[in-house]
Automatic annotation (TrEMBL):
<dbReference type="InterPro" id="IPR048254">
    <property type="entry name" value="CDP_ALCOHOL_P_TRANSF_CS"/>
</dbReference>
<comment type="pathway">
    <text>Phospholipid metabolism; phosphatidylglycerol biosynthesis; phosphatidylglycerol from CDP-diacylglycerol: step 1/2.</text>
</comment>
<dbReference type="InterPro" id="IPR043130">
    <property type="entry name" value="CDP-OH_PTrfase_TM_dom"/>
</dbReference>
<protein>
    <recommendedName>
        <fullName>CDP-diacylglycerol--glycerol-3-phosphate 3-phosphatidyltransferase</fullName>
        <ecNumber>2.7.8.5</ecNumber>
    </recommendedName>
</protein>
<feature type="transmembrane region" description="Helical">
    <location>
        <begin position="29"/>
        <end position="47"/>
    </location>
</feature>
<feature type="transmembrane region" description="Helical">
    <location>
        <begin position="176"/>
        <end position="194"/>
    </location>
</feature>
<keyword id="KW-0808">Transferase</keyword>
<keyword id="KW-0812">Transmembrane</keyword>
<comment type="similarity">
    <text>Belongs to the CDP-alcohol phosphatidyltransferase class-I family.</text>
</comment>
<dbReference type="InterPro" id="IPR004570">
    <property type="entry name" value="Phosphatidylglycerol_P_synth"/>
</dbReference>
<feature type="transmembrane region" description="Helical">
    <location>
        <begin position="54"/>
        <end position="71"/>
    </location>
</feature>
<feature type="transmembrane region" description="Helical">
    <location>
        <begin position="91"/>
        <end position="117"/>
    </location>
</feature>
<dbReference type="GO" id="GO:0016020">
    <property type="term" value="C:membrane"/>
</dbReference>
<keyword id="KW-0443">Lipid metabolism</keyword>
<dbReference type="InterPro" id="IPR050324">
    <property type="entry name" value="CDP-alcohol_PTase-I"/>
</dbReference>
<dbReference type="InterPro" id="IPR000462">
    <property type="entry name" value="CDP-OH_P_trans"/>
</dbReference>
<keyword id="KW-0594">Phospholipid biosynthesis</keyword>
């Protein structure tokens, strides 16, 4: 009878709930690897190794798609992964941008990075509050566009600093991309605030 009860208890656990309780799997391992690469990018920029930093940054940023695809494809979406993945995304961008601020001619100003980092703190705090109450605060399209322009700005700035091509048009390209990144950062931050207010009103 005890064995039967144990079997029933185990059968009640769905694959999704079992996956959600896992800690180490391929997507989370990739996220941890990306975290290490993010710090490596910052170090390379500090030592003015711009082309190696560009290569490592592209690898780190591109694996974001891989771990997300793997988690959905093989049902390995976990509670840790839902927190770790966006956290690592923020570290990849902020580590590169903060390091680039200290490089003369990068085209990236300190106030721009302050806006970007401030938005990340705001959205992270709101997400923790909403999801802590059981709400859904998934990524939105503006946030994805924000990430795209931020990555493009980092790549353009690193190419500019490395001097591999004509700097005239690249200066303008970097300037346009970082301004678009800042504008999308502000817009996506406002979008998340509006979403949080709506969720709070619906919950009350």
């Amino acid at each position: 009878m005890a064995a039967t009860t144990t079997q029933v208890e185990h059968s009640d656990q769905s694959p999704a709930s079992a996956a959600g309780d896992q800690i180490w799997n391929v997507p989370n391992a990739l996220s941890m690897a990306r975290l290490g690469l993010a710090f490596f990018v910052g170090i390379l920029i500090e030592f003015q190794q711009f082309m190696p930093a560009l290569f490592v940054f592209v690898v780190a940023a591109s694996t974001d798609f891989v771990d997300g695809w793997w988690a959905r494809k093989f049902n390995q979406v976990t509670k840790l992964g839902r927190v770790l993945d966006p956290f690592v995304d923020k570290i990849i961008i902020t580590a590169a941008l903060i390091a680039l601020v200290g490089c003369a001619g990068s085209g990236i100003d300190a106030w721009m990075v302050t806006v970007i980092v401030g938005r990340e703190f705001l959205v992270t705090s709101i997400r923790a509050m909403v999801e802590g109450k059981g709400g859904d605060f998934s990524a939105r399209s503006l946030g994805k566009w924000k990430m795209l322009f931020q990555c493009a700005a980092v790549v353009s700035s690193l190419l500019l600093l490395d001097g591999v091509t004509d700097a005239v048009w690249l200066v303008w390209t970097t300037s346009v991309l970082i301004w678009l990144a800042v504008l999308m950062t502000v817009a996506s931050g406002a979008d998340y605030v509006i979403q949080a207010v709506r969720l709070a009103r619906n919950a009350s």
